[in-house]
Design goal:
2 strands, 3 helices, single chain, alpha+beta, two-stranded parallel ribbon, 33% helix
């Protein structure tokens, strides 16, 4: 990633938190290279459910 884009992204996200899914988080080598210091990064827990025609989640 170019230095200008990285700096602009850090400025844009300053003061915010982000939420990512585990699959996306695994692709990021270092969040500290992309985000401002002290940015909270939440890893979402996504539960896989199957929906059946009777309306039951299993």
């Amino acid at each position: 990633m170019s230095k200008d884009i990285n700096t602009n992204f850090k400025d844009f996200t300053s003061g915010y938190s982000i939420e990512v899914i585990p699959r996306s988080a695994a692709k990021i080598e270092s969040f500290s290279d992309l985000l401002p210091k002290s940015t909270r990064v939440y890893i979402a827990h996504i539960e896989t459910r199957r929906y059946y025609s009777n309306g039951c989640y299993c």
